[in-house]
Amino acid sequence: MLGASGFLGSYIFKRLYLQEKNIIRQSRKKRKNFIKIDLLNKREVFKKLKKINPKIIINTSGMTDVEKCENSFHLAFKSNVVSIQNVCEYVKTYNKNCYFINISTDHLYNGKGPHKEENINLINNYALTKYLGEVMSSKIDSINLRVNFFGNNFIKKTGLVNWFINACKRKKKIFLYKDILFSPLEINSLTEIISKIINKRISGTYNLGSNNGISKAEFLNLIGKNLKLNLKFAKITSSSNIKNRAKRPNDMRLNNKKFEKKFKIKLPNIYQEIQKFCINYNNY
Ligand SMILES: NC(=O)c1ccc[n+]([C@@H]2O[C@H](COP(=O)([O-])OP(=O)(O)OC[C@H]3O[C@@H](n4cnc5c(N)ncnc54)[C@H](OP(=O)(O)O)[C@@H]3O)[C@@H](O)[C@H]2O)c1
């Protein structure tokens, strides 16, 4: 598992470990129970992956900070494209039967959703480099899953929901955007689905989110009300009021029909996902 120290990577690992103990976690850093591989170093990637000889590689690694990507295309390109290119070259050269699961993003879309897979519209460096990562991955036996997800990020305590809950608890003034739409899955739903599809080895590019979609303001408000948070300092506004930051898509809602049809899995709607998160919030 590449990027297994991250938010999604740590949840996927926890879920897959229930069914398969032989999982090796990669990090750029020296970490306990991880193997250190610099994915930008092709020789190192080849040498260490040859030794492991994996049947499946899951990639959750990457530079996910939109602002950092915008400030350095070079770094974003290395983290989101070159790393995948090196791994795919290893697969092509030494391990053709290896199946590659690449976690991509709903950030590839813009304009009115819900978006079908062909409707890409890349408006910042994060989107562009994530898309190029998909192009690299598509050269081998792989699946690109364009996801969005939410949950309790118990490692870094960052991410939309942690940010919101912490701000409400600290009575900090925050702004919730009524004009940014998305359709995330609760993180345990996403990892459960990945655990179900992993052995099907179906290739291609698929949206994988919840159905319906919602604005970030309504999403956070519903979570706040459900968890009985103090919402007095959370102001609903429009994202056009934010200045000096990278351009972002306003509507990232996913049309999940291709995934549902191919995998014969009915995806939940966003309200079910919010409910699930709130019920489990204290047990994450
Ligand atoms: N978070 C979201 O809401 C969201 C939404 C849609 C799609 N996604 C996609 O889902 C995947 C996982 O996201 P995540 O939120 O779990 O990511 P994350 O917590 O930021 O973790 C990504 C991991 O990638 C490694 N990494 C490699 N190069 C990096 C770099 N230049 N900067 C920072 N980390 C780097 C880090 O592991 P080491 O330091 O251990 O190597 C890090 O822990 C990503 O591909 C992302 O594009 C995320």
What does the model show?
It is a single chain. The protein has helices spanning 7-17, 42-52, 66-71, 73-94, 125-137, 160-169, 187-197, 216-226, 257-263, 270-280, and strands at 25-27, 34-36, 56-59, 99-105, 142-147, 149-150, 174-177, 181-182, 185-186, 204-208, 214-215, 234-237. It is built from ten helices and twelve strands. The radius of gyration is 19 Å and the shape is globular. Helix content is 40%, strand content 15%. It has one domain (7-155, 185-213, 253-273): Rossmann fold. The protein has 284 residues and is α/β, with parallel strands linked by helices. Bound molecules: NADP nicotinamide-adenine-dinucleotide phosphate (NAP). The site of NADP nicotinamide-adenine-dinucleotide phosphate (NAP) has 23 residues, from helix 1 and strand 4.
Q: Roughly how many Å apart are the termini? A: 22 Å
Bound molecules: NADP nicotinamide-adenine-dinucleotide phosphate
How does the helix and strand content classify structurally?
alpha/beta
Overall 3D shape: globular
- The domain tally reads 1
Radius of gyration: 19 Å
Across the major sheet, the strand order is: 3-4-5-10
Largest sheet: 4 strands, parallel
- Count of discrete alpha- or pi-helical segments spanning 4 or more residues: 10
- CATH architecture assignment name: 3-Layer(aba) Sandwich
Number of strands: 12
CATH class call: Alpha Beta
Strand content: 15-25%
The CATH superfamily is NAD(P)-binding Rossmann-like Domain
Instruction: Write the CATH fold name.
Output: Rossmann fold
H-E order: HEEHEHHEHEEHEEEHEEHEHH
> What is the overall pLDDT average?
96
- Helical content (DSSP H or I, runs of 4+): 25-40%
The poorly predicted ranges are none
